[in-house]
Write a structure and sequence with these properties.
Length: 679
């Protein structure tokens, strides 16, 4: 068994090199370029080399080199090939898997050519479970044990640029760009305006010039993959601009590429076009929100306005303009009264009484032209995009610092693939074979039931802390093909790290709110990642270490814990309302606030000798009696009352007076007691 220090050193890369923000591979020179952002100095680019490799299983049935050992040996000499036998430790799935590592001392292209000359397409349907060749950047990070972003404490330290377009139509064939907004997390802000096509042409050129001057490590937009980049390159085509000439990358011989890609979302995928600029990380920030939405049912939509409100990042004077009004407001340049306190506006000249009243309240109302109003709207969009990026891509940043792949891929790949990359890196480091994949089968999942319809008061939501990974650790539910115990070691490390961050967030909550929030942001993506191991186990078609029997054992145990929780709290007078996989909503009994329980310290969530009161007393008692090791029950919130209509369809009255409707495809407040945005 490995120590937490062993796991930590592996995850963060044993190589000490810092400040790498991107890796690019040059097929012609057979080398990699390390792009570094040195604090206080800017960008630095350095060359490096590595030995490319492939995992290989039994190729005999593919008639490799016509079955001729002599022909294969001759090809090995020609392409600089060496072959190593990998460890299986007598495990059946490892013995049936990829048990050899093929390396080429002459480079990545020679490695590929070795297989193709032998009649084997490394990425063909017949060979996909017999040969595995990772992209060269991932091979470099694995073999050199390097990781991106080492040396950066948090996401805010990396230079990030966001941008947004305002257009006169939804499609570039029917309109044009009239405004480009650019902002960085380091204080740079600029709006490029263009009144006609000639100015639009210059604006697009200027946009790429700004990128070249700023040289941010990360370039992001909101819904930019399928909208903003599409607009930019299509308008270049219409205006006769060669984008390869104006898109200055960090290498004089390389520009940009665009290719079809997929965003992995639980059991679904979304197609998009990935724009890549050499030396930069180009991301679409909505992808991070969509991934969070796929695993967090409380996130009901992915629009920028909604998600900004969801994370409570909306400025009180935020300007909203309906998308149908943006173009006309800019073009007509009519006058508006702007309420500088709440961002609301009214057109001048519509009502003389309003004009008179607003004219007298210069401390509240500013007269502003439509084009300036649109600029303020664009500026607010940029501010919110940066905030959402900071909130939701903090997780991708932390994962990219541990997983040997590009930041662009971390931002879009599924969690099963993320775990796969970790285990591939571990197997490479320890000379282990890759297990044979299992077939995917169905099994019974978690419990989800509506137990009481109608009105209930004094509602308490209880859920288990990371139920499935906790079950794995407590009951040792891991596949036997993980012969070194890496999965358990990594899961335990991630869990301990998350607990440490949560404790630090609580410790600094009253003394240093910013530091507290920073630790809180760090623990959240770790929570999401450890919870995703169950999904990886249940996806053997992606994750070679997947084990459907283990997945079924986890969900079965989870259902038992859920029933145990319901039985205990019903004995205390609670009424169960809704149960969903890892939690239950209860109606609290009368007099619960008078209850007292002295903690015995038998569970990590309960302090010995501490006095717990109210429903906290019942939760602490449950944890002392039933929870062991990593297991633990938490209170996830309370409501004054709720009305349950159907499963995942209910209304809640919150303590501060807010009324929220929750339904299977969304949520909204119909009364917000704390918010007054009246004109």
């Amino acid at each position: 068994m490995f120590t937490d220090q062993d796991i930590e050193s592996f995850l963060h890369g044993n190589d000490p090199e810092e400040f790498i923000v991107a890796i690019e591979y040059d097929y012609r020179e057979n080398c990699v370029y390390k792009i570094k952002e040195i604090p206080g100095k800017g960008k630095e680019i350095r060359k490096d080399t590595f030995t490319p490799f492939a995992w290989v299983g039994d190729l005999r049935e593919l008639n490799f080199y016509g079955g001729s050992k002599a022909a294969q040996k001759e090809a090995m000499t020609k392409h600089g090939i060496t072959i190593d036998k990998l460890e299986t430790h007598g495990n059946d799935r490892l013995q049936r898997g990829m048990t050899f590592m093929v390396k080429s001392l002459k480079g990545y292209r020679e490695l590929i050519q070795f297989f193709r000359e032998g009649g084997c397409d490394p990425w063909g349907d017949k060979t996909k479970d017999k040969v595995m060749i990772l992209p060269p950047v991932e091979q470099y990070l694995i073999s050199k044990e390097k990781r991106l972003f080492k040396g950066f404490e948090n996401y805010e330290e990396v230079t990030r640029m966001v941008y947004d377009l305002e257009t006169t139509a939804l499609e570039p064939q029917h309109g044009r760009i009239f405004m480009i907004g650019i902002k960085t997390n380091k204080g740079y802000h600029r709006v490029i305006e263009c009144m006609d096509e000639s100015e639009e042409r210059n604006a697009i050129i200027e946009f790429f010039k700004v990128i070249n001057e700023l040289k941010p490590s990360i370039i992001g937009g909101y819904n930019s993959a399928n909208f903003d980049w599409h607009w930019i390159f299509e308008r270049c085509r219409i205006l006769g601009i060669d984008p390869k000439k104006i898109c200055k990358s960090l290498h004089p011989d390389h520009s940009f590429t665009r290719k079809d890609s997929m965003l992995k979302l639980a059991n679904e995928v979304e197609n998009f076009t990935q724009t890549s600029i050499w030396g930069y990380n180009v991301i679409d920030i909505i992808h991070a929100v969509r991934r969070a939405q796929a695993i967090n049912s409380s996130i009901k939509a992915a629009g920028l306005k909604y998600i900004t409100q969801f994370i409570n990042a909306e400025a009180p004077d935020r300007v909203y303009i309906d998308h149908t009004d943006i173009g006309p407001f800019y073009a007509k340049k009519e006058d508006f009264w702007l309420n500088i306190q709440n961002g609301k506006y009214k057109k001048v000249g519509v009502d003389s009484k309003i004009d008179e009243a607003c004219g007298k309240r210069t401390d509240v109302y500013n007269k502003i032209t439509g084009d300036k109003l649109v600029e303020m709207y664009l500026d607010d969009d940029l501010d919110e995009t940066l905030k959402v990026d900071q909130e939701f891509n903090q997780g991708s940043f932390l994962l990219a610092a541990m997983i040997p792949t590009t930041y662009e891929r971390v931002s879009t790949m599924g969690t099963a693939t993320l775990w796969k990359m970790l285990m591939l890196a571990w197997s490479h480091k320890h000379g282990l074979a890759i297990p044979a994949k299992e077939s995917k089968t169905d099994f019974v999942g978690g419990l989800s039931r509506l137990l009481k319809v109608g009105y209930s008061k004094n509602v308490l939501k209880l859920d288990f802390s990371s139920l499935y990974p906790s079950i794995q650790l407590v009951h040792d539910v891991f596949p036997d093909c993980d012969v070194t115990g890496a999965m358990k070691g990594m899961l335990s490390y991630f869990r301990n790290t998350r607990i440490k961050y949560k404790q630090l967030a609580e410790e600094f909550y009253t003394t240093d709110r910013k530091k507290s929030e920073s630790y809180g942001n760090k623990q959240l993506p770790i929570k999401i990642f450890i919870n995703s191991m169950f999904g990886a186990l249940s996806a053997p078609q992606v994750y070679a270490w997947g084990d459907m029997y283990m997945g079924e054992q986890i969900t079965c145990t989870g259902r038992q814990y859920l029933r145990q929780m319901i039985k205990f709290f019903m004995s205390k007078g609670y009424v169960p309302l809704v149960m969903d996989t890892d939690g239950v909503n209860f109606s609290k009994p009368e007099g619960v606030e008078d209850r007292v329980y002295i903690g015995k310290g038998l569970n990590w969530k309960v302090k010995e000798g501490k006095e717990y009161r109210g429903d906290d007393a019942d939760v602490a008692e449950f944890n002392d009696i039933f929870m062991r090791g990593a297991m633990g029950l938490d209170c996830d919130g309370t409501w004054k009352s709720c009305i349950n209509l159907a499963r995942k369809n209910y209304a809640t009255l919150e303590h501060e007076g807010k009324i929220k409707l929750n339904y299977s495809y969304g949520e909204k407040y119909i009364f917000n007691g704390n918010r007054n945005r009246s004109w």
